[in-house]
Input
Amino acid sequence: MYGLQHDWHNAIGTATDLVKKFPTNVDVIDKLGRVQIESGDSDGALSTYKRAHMIAPNSLSILSSYLGLLRSAKKTPEARMVLRAALRRDPQNASLKGDLARVEAEIGGLEAGLAAAHNFAGNDPDNSLYDRVSAELYEKAGRREEAIGLLEKAVAGRPSDTDLTVALSRLYRRMGVPDKAEAVLKARLEAGPKDFAADLALAFLHVEQKQYAAAIAEYSRLVEDGPADPSVLNNLAWLYQRQGEIAKARELAQRAFAISPRDPYVDDTLGWILLRQGDAAKAIAYLGAANLSAPRNPDIQYHLAVALHRVGRPADAQAILETLLGSSVSFADRAEAEKLLHELKAG
Output
């Protein structure tokens, strides 16, 4: 709750007190680290996650947070040591190997990263991760054509590998050639059998290209063809609410929430739909939960501010909007957020 109010002094103080009471509880230590990150105390968070990693070295979620902070702080040699130690404990973990290749590139440049990826691929030739990591390193170094060439060759050699196909499609999209991005996904789907990941990537591509009717059709097929997936239900709900079909959107969002009640994006979608239906009091519970889980998401912050305004809490709404708009972050409803803040200040 302190975090929701951006009262970081009390949020950190409360979390610190909990850590003192439960010094070996990794979940409690993780909560302190998350609060420190949100408050901007990256040094404190780094120290906290180092401690958590020492207590629970096999926790992949703690390791991921710790490595992310090390790399953000440009402490890549330390990140490399941590990754090497993790690989000694889990030598078959391809994800760790991919991260180590990325860190090697940060330390020694592109060729060092490529060499590490190539070395790992030699011992794990059936895993396409190393091709995808290599393409990522080429792209990051500004050598997109080589990234494209590598992935095109890899896809040709492994046409049934959906991860490679999706990676190539996304690279085409980033290069500004959405037609190729769509074509490579459709080729994979036409070759059969049904492929959820490729279908999902195609649906998301339609959303990015603002082809909303095609996106609704694709997501609807996914809902009909397979077991209920909360992200699919949630995205389809978002599309329907955007089209003004609020009742249908609410039914889908509630189905998504029943499957994944702690997903902040599901909470946000359902809360925003309830707000559209005029039920601000109920909406604020979902939007508040979403903001607590993903406090740096600008869309969620804006939605929560609108809900707070609707339930008669203009000061809280204004505080959120001032913090949000005081940053340079861009989001779809920024103009609407600025308009609301102006109205709140005018009284």
